[in-house]
Amino acid sequence: MQMANDKVQLFEDQPIRTAWVEDEEEWYFSIVDVVGILTEQPDIDGARNNWKVLKNRLKDEGSQLVTNCHQLKMRSPKDGKRYNTDVANTEQLLRLIQSIPSKKSGAV
User: Cα(108)–Cα(103) distance, rounded to whole angstroms?
Assistant: First the structure.
């Protein structure tokens, strides 16, 4: 996948790493960032743990959503280096949000 650029978008003053993939003409969003915001995690490690638990639960349920997620190199908020990060396009992200138990996602 050819990434044209990556940016940080804000949702309720919280950063979400995003990337525009030129080949697909589509935005991708860091799943960990979105999970962290919706579950009100104080740091990236808590968000990462919540995503790990959610990912395992979805796999156990036989959901193809996790299988269809991609990874892109995104800049880490911790050290500024680029690491493979689970990402989702808009459609995948909306489906994923519905699976997150959170007051903000409406899935409580």
Answer: 6
Q: Please state, as a whole number, how many other Cβ atoms lie within 10 Å of the Cβ of residue 9.
A: 13
Specify the pTM.
0.82
Which are the contacts of 38, defined by CB distance < 8 A and separation ≥ 6?
Answer: 97, 100, 102, 104, 105
Domain positions in the chain are 3-98
What is the C-alpha to C-alpha distance for residues 95 and 75, in angstroms, rounded to an integer?
25
> Which class would CATH give 3-98?
alpha beta
Please, are residues 39 and 47 in contact by the beta-carbon 8 Å criterion?
yes
Q: What pLDDT was estimated at residue 15? A: 86
Q: Is 98 helix (H, G, I), strand (E, B) or coil?
A: helix
What is the C-alpha R_g of the chain?
13
pLDDT of residue 2: 47
